[in-house]
Amino acid sequence: LKEKTEDLRRERRLAEDLLHQMLPKSVARQLRKCQKVEAENYDQVTIFFSDIVGFTSIAASCTPLQVVEMLNNLYICFDTRIEAYDVYKVETIGDAYMVVSGLPERNGTKHADEIAKMSLDLVAAVRQVLVPHMPGGRLELRAGVHTGPCVAGVVGYKMPRYCLFGDTVNTASRMESTSLPQKIHISSATYEALLTDDAYEIELRGEIEVKGKGKMQTYWLLGNKNYSVQN
């Protein structure tokens, strides 16, 4: 009976660990208690999007197994790195990687700083990811960041997902799609949020035309004055 009880506890821990990798702990707790998870409004969060430069042509030149292996290597690297920051990985869609800070646990005004440090880390880390079928090649990342309000909640009954909604999500995605290889493209809202402690090297990109948004003043995040990202 003691052995069976311990086996049951072990299986329950494994199930909980798996659930916590798919949903925030606070949300998972409510779902386990069969409680309705209410959508929540957040006044300020910072959202990061990235994708692999030239992914379509890379994928076309290799087998499906090689594509999966390449993305798995990349995401294991990223997933390990982001544990050092106060951020939540929302999802991956193909080669797109989405991370947020400031929800589900609010962290005051720290969200822009946490995402900025993480962004610099990931852009440096991607150059170290080995691609088995491209021994001489290296992956490049295109990244975008925006700060603003959003709504978060669980959608779906089967394979429920914790999703973010609002214009902030769309704008962060636009920052990524209009970025350049190995560059972190940030909006003026994120720029202003990072000005508070004067810790970052930021360069004005200027006004650019953003689909659905018109002209926007944007910036390049170049580095942090207080530390350098190590390989």
From TrEMBL:
Keywords: cGMP biosynthesis, Glycoprotein, GTP-binding, Lyase, Membrane, Nucleotide-binding, Receptor, Signal, Transmembrane, Transmembrane helix
Keyword Isomerase: no
PROSITE patterns: GUANYLATE_CYCLASE_1, GUANYLATE_CYCLASE_2
Example of a GO biological process term: intracellular signal transduction
Molecular function, one GO term: adenylate cyclase activity
An example Gene Ontology CC term for this record: plasma membrane
Membrane-topology annotation of the record: Single-pass type I membrane protein
Subcellular location as annotated: Membrane
Span of domain Guanylate cyclase: 46-176
PANTHER family: GUANYLATE CYCLASE (PTHR11920:SF497), GUANYLYL CYCLASE (PTHR11920)
Family in the record: Belongs to the adenylyl cyclase class-4/guanylyl cyclase family.
Protein name per Swiss-Prot or TrEMBL: guanylate cyclase
Organism of origin: Irena cyanogastra (Philippine fairy-bluebird)
Gene: Npr2_0
